[in-house]
Amino acid sequence: MTVTGTYANDVAPVVTGGGSINVVNNGAHVAATQTGKGAINIVNNGQVMAATNTGSGVMTINSNATGAVAVTRTGNGNTTVNATGSSVIALTFKGDGDVVYPKSSSDGAGINPYNGDVSYRKSSAQGSAINPNITVSGKNAGNVSPVLTGDGIINIVNNGAHVAATQTGKGMISIVNDGHVMAATNTGSGVMTIHSTNSGAVAVTRTGNGNTTVTTSGSTPLALTFNGDGDVTFPHAMAQGLGVNSNISVSGTHARDVAPVLHGSGSISVVNNGAHVAATQTGAGRIAIVNNGQVMAATNKGSGVMTINSNATGAVAVTRNGNGNTTVNATGSSVIALTFDGDGDVTYPPSNAQSKALGQSQGSNSHINVSGSNAGAVSTTITGGGFINVTNNGSGFDTATETGTGTINITNTGAGVTATNTGNGVMTINSTDTAEVTVTNTGNGRVNVTASGSDPLTLTHNGDDDFTYPAPR
To answer: What digits encode the pLDDT tens for the residues 42-52?
Structure first.
């Protein structure tokens, strides 16, 4: 052992085995432990330092860093560290082979670390001889847990709370955290870039090979899962302001084709293995979607849970304006457009729809079924326990309002139809009329209307008797 320097008396060397320690200390306290036949050579002009070498290689450290420095080597290769800057530097190298820190651009680093103070770079936990890189800096660099498996790169600037980053494969994780706790996992070959000022917890997982870019702010938690290849950007360009208040989880083979928008304290969870999904939650409720079908638009404005499972090959649109739970199972090839107003739980299609006669009370279970080539031009409202079934293959806009426990059935191949039923009877309208048709029933009887021709038709029926138009001969 040889100890010299201005502060040679502030060195604690320990040698076990046939190794050696040589320290020149002109800085703060140095603790050096050599186990085995290797050697430790230190020139310290900076802050406190701890050096541990358990193998047969030579550990050489030159430091003028004003932050603490800790270097541990458990393998047999040579270790060379040049420490500068003001951040804490904690390095652990496992396995054999020579290691140099910081890695120069000429030895295969591939991607430049942040300019500025570098405080954490280590080999993989498996001791990979290709020397993967981990770089951590920032005011809270010491509160980072990076895990690297393979020859990827982790680069973190942490000025916030704890960051856990796991890179598996050849990809890269690049994080600037000025917010709350964060967990980032990247298992592919792409680059995951996260910039957070969010005061809520943030968790991002990517299992595919594309690039992942996440920008988040606000105060509520954010949980994102992206599966499959291709580049992903969050928030989606169509969801401006999303990061302001986010508790959103997106996954699936087509996770990148999801546009979630969250207003309030609710949450959105989408597993998208199908076409584009647009999900908008306003309020304290939740949207949970599993889409294996065509394009989907889901809007929940209440405090209830909207659950949609779709393998439909036609477009699906679901809107809920009340506070109850909404459950939709969408199948088939027709367009499905559903709007539910009012409170109470809703299930579509009703599990017992085949066994109940139309017009029977459905209790608090409001049912709306909209289809046809022009299903998007239908507006439906239920405020009772009734049922609305509209097939719109016409050119106009259909409006159906059920305020009782009755049923409205519309088949339209003409112009627009407006139907209002306030009772408990069944209203059936078949229209080929090329002009507007308006039918109102304020009673409890059955109403059957067949409209044709080219003139507008307006019918109002009061009372509990049955009504048929045109009147039977």
So the answer is: 999 999 999 99
Q: What is the CA radius of gyration of the chain?
A: 34
Question: How many Cα atoms within 13 Å fall on the side-chain side of residue 374?
Answer: 19
| Element (DSSP H or E) covering residue 307 | strand 305-310
**Contact (CB, 8 A) for 343 and 325:** no
Question: Cα separation of 293 and 280, whole Å?
Answer: 19
Q: 390 pairs with which residues across the strands?
A: 370, 410
Spans of the chain, pLDDT less than 50: 104-132, 237-246, 352-366
SS3 category, 209: coil
Give 90-123 pLDDT, tens digit per residue.
Answer: 777 766 777 777 754 333 332 222 222 223 333 3
In sequence order, the β-bridge partners of residue 306 are 287, 326
What is d(CA 156, CA 167) in angstroms, rounded to the nearest whole number? 12
Q: Tokens 């299930």 belong to which residue?
A: 347
From CA 154, how far away is CA 166, in angstroms rounded?
A: 8
- What does pTM read for this prediction? 0.44
Find the Cα–Cα–Cα–Cα dihedral 80, 85, 88, 91, rounded to 10°. Answer: -20
C-beta neighbour count of 287 within 10 angstroms: 26
**DSSP assignment string, 369-420:** EEESTTGGGEEEEESSS-EEEEEE-SSS-EEEEE-SS-EEEEEESSS-EEEE
d(CA 222, CA 262): 11
Rounded Cα distance between 140 and 24, Å, is 29
Rounded CA-CA distance 29/56 in Å is 25
Name 260's bridge partners: 279
Q: Where are the domains of the chain?
A: 1-101
CA 93-98-103 angle, to 5 degrees, is 75
The two structure tokens encoding residue 378: 């239908």
Residue type present at position 326:
T
